[in-house]
Amino acid sequence: MNAITLQGHHTSSPELEHWLASHIALGFQPESLVQTMLKSGYNEMFARGIVAAAFQHAASGNHPPAVQRTVETHADSSEAVQLSDNNVFTHEGHDISVLFSLKAPRVVLLKNLLAPRECDALIALSRDRLRRSPVVDPASGSESLVDARTSMGAMFQLGEHALLQRIEARIAALTGVPADHGEGLQILHYQPGGEYKPHFDFFSATQTGEALQLRTGGQRIATLVIYLNNPVAGGGTGFPRIGLEIAPVKGNAVLFSYLLPDGTLDERTLHAGLPVIEGEKWIATKWLRERPYCP
User: Fold this and answer.
1) Residue in 269, 221, 272 with CA at minimum distance from that of residue 105
2) Alpha carbon distances (Å) from 138 to 78, 148, 202
3) Under 8 Å between Cβ of 236 and 245
């Protein structure tokens, strides 16, 4: 099974085109650019090919045809790209389908990431641990309760339970990010009216408190939100800057990444847990880091 590549790791994009062109103009050598792309998670064959093409077309003054096609196809990045029905990934007999993939920003909707029984088991594991969900104070780095986040949550350590180990291995195989680069799974429960207002999942190095978080595994690079039940109404995941809303469907998951090839963070991934209108909402959240996560 091929991993779903984060940040468009096998696909060109306007951001990558700009990054390559600007660094070539500054005098960077091909191998230096390839190594930087590899550190950002790109496939080596893809990286070497596109770097070679970028140098060739920089010399001729033209844009690589592949990049031109990307710009034309995705000029409106808010339009989700529908993938074929046979885009199915299998891990240890468990099939996961890609329902759609958006390249800029990188957002992927997955069907059946978890089986119904796995969703139910995660909810059962978390019930005795539920506490009001905190957020990280950007100034101090401490956790605090705020009105913008009204869920109850339960945190698990990496590999704490056999079920978690199985799910973490599946996520690692799917994303290509090693399991030890992930924070422990967080289970969240929202009652009617519960929400998490628009926010970013990555940390700001300019905020003292958030910068402290970077010491334990580096920057967050991607988020996976897994829906564990079907709310009666509401409770989706909204991306207000690109006009996208994901409906919560049991077993499905939305994966989005925000670390761009040049090291900047994609603020188009501003997102919100939309208010639950009727029923209840259960989700599992997984954050992936640049390096092994050692809290």
Assistant:
1) 269
2) 29, 14, 11
3) yes
Q: Which residue has the tokens 């939100």?
A: 225
**Phi and psi, residue 44, nearest 5°:** -65, -45
The identity of residue 253, as a single letter, is A
**Digitized pLDDT (tens) for each residue of the chain, 295 residues in all:** 556 555 445 567 777 777 788 777 767 777 777 777 777 777 666 777 788 778 877 776 544 333 332 222 232 332 332 333 448 888 899 999 999 888 889 899 999 999 999 999 999 999 999 887 655 555 544 554 445 556 788 999 999 999 999 999 999 988 888 999 999 999 999 999 999 999 999 998 888 778 888 888 999 999 999 999 999 999 999 999 999 999 999 999 999 999 887 788 999 999 999 999 999 999 999 999 999 998 7
Give the end-to-end CA distance of the chain in Å, rounded to a whole number: 31
Note the Cα 162 to chain centre separation in Å: 24
Backbone angles phi, psi at 179, to 5 degrees: -60, -35
Tokens coding 60 = 């001729």
Identity of residue 250: K
SS3 for the chain is: CCCCCHHHCCCCCHHHHHHHHHHHHCCCCHHHHHHHHHHCCCCHHHHHHHHHHHHHHHHHCCCCHHHHHHHHHCCCCCCCEECCCCCEEEECCEEEEEEEEEECCEEEEEECCCCHHHHHHHHHHHHHHCEECCEECCCCCCEECCCCECCEEEECCCCCCHHHHHHHHHHHHHHCCCHHHECCCEEEEECCCCCEEEECCCCCCCCHHHHHHCCCCCCEEEEEEEECCCCCEECCEEECCCCEEECCCCCCEEEEECECCCCCECHHHCEEECCEEECCEEEEEEEEECCCCCC
Q: Would you give the distance in Å from CA 256 to the centre of its chain? A: 3
